[in-house]
Amino acid sequence: MSSQINRRFFFYGPLLAGAVPAAGFGSAASLKMLGYKSPNEKLNIAAIGSGGKGHSDIQGCISENIVALCDVDEKRAERAFKQFDKATKYKDYRKMLDEQSKNIDAVIVSTPDHMHATTAIAAMERGKHVYCQKPLTRTVWEARQMREVANKFGVATQMGNQGYSNEGTRQVAEIVWAGELGQVKEVHAWTDRPWWPQGTTEIPAPTEVPNTLEWDLWLGSADKRPFTTGGPDFKSPYGGFYQPFNWRGFFDFGCGALGDMACHILGAPNMALKLGSPTSVECIMKEGVSSFQFPKKSITKFSFPARGNMGPVNIFWHDGLKESPKIEGVPTDEWLGDLPNRPRRQGQAPAAPAREPGYNGMVGRVFNYEAFQALKSDSEVRPASPNGSLFIGDKGILTTGTYGEGTRLLPTNKMADFKMPEPLLTRSPGHYRDWIRACKGGDASCSNFNVASPFVEWMLLGVIALRVEGKLEWDATKMRFTNNNEANQFLKPRLRKGFTIS
Q: Please, what are the domains in the chain?
């Protein structure tokens, strides 16, 4: 027991050091200031961005009172507006926060990336708890501001990287900490994104703005430009040239495939390896480049120094893939990352456990060797999309899925009689419930901004590396690249008047 306690302190303590502000989210002073609600009372929640992902985030908090909804596109938000017909509706988040400030306890932010920090900080400065979609912010400076403001106002926060709440992600950490892989030297993480257009080289002619969309409010902090649907020659299953979804591929609005999926897929490596800040980042391959969009396909390398008893490690991010990457030393006949799916037959119960409301299907399946063998022999099995990560240690190899699903050692036959290490990490009650509990004075949520901000910061360095040639040397203390002033200009956003951060 003494050995277990010491081991728990050694790993668990440093992992969560700094995860809670010095005053504590549950401190009497901060709760009194915010108007403490007991766990049995319901929160009054407002949403900024109520369509698309915003709608599913609202569903995740449906146990509470949804009292105000904001969206610049009333067509996109129509479903939420109808579902919560008694909630007050807005197009301008500033007006909503001013008029509803006394009536709301917490705010969900599910806007395009470029408006995350501006809207979330405006809410936190009014003492509101904030749930913000990944990738938290578009720039490193904004990520640091989000953390600073959250701590200053003592609010409960959560970033929308659901994998941090999953069992499998915690299993990855505990397997690594138990020494099953030895020293992890290399990690590969990959995705089939982008699904949306990237690498576009020309902007189509302007078209008329739909009467349901407030285009200037949609642009928000970004520079003004004409609206366009893309015209008759533009083809995308995700709507028009910029919105409602294709903004992800633009430098000014999103963070590309890295911003969309790295907060999920790199969550397990970040937690298990306690990564901190890299010393350098470099895009080592890219295809389909553009002057205003991210490339169609890329590979980015992050180099991290030794951390405590963990040695240096290189993280390789691959995007734009049609199949899992071929990695030297890894058996080619093994399934990597996400596990294939077995089609549901008529009358058959779902294979995965019932998911948390609003979880959008992203519940991590815990690996079961017998079920895995049955999956391998099923002639109707459907290939998985290429998403996941792979840890290569000097004693072993491990792979896991997008959100920590199916965590397993390789070769997979090692799992036949493998016993998972004793749990060291607290298990989450559910991604949204985690945040709601924190808002009501409970433990800080698993991806609160003190955890999410440093994670997002190093990921965003990769976003910059996609725009600048060569290896970038990073000084986290000074928040600057020491060898490239061109890259330094992308660390902080240029914010349009009316949408600045105080």
A: 20-163+431-449 (3.40.50.720), 166-196+255-416 (3.30.360)
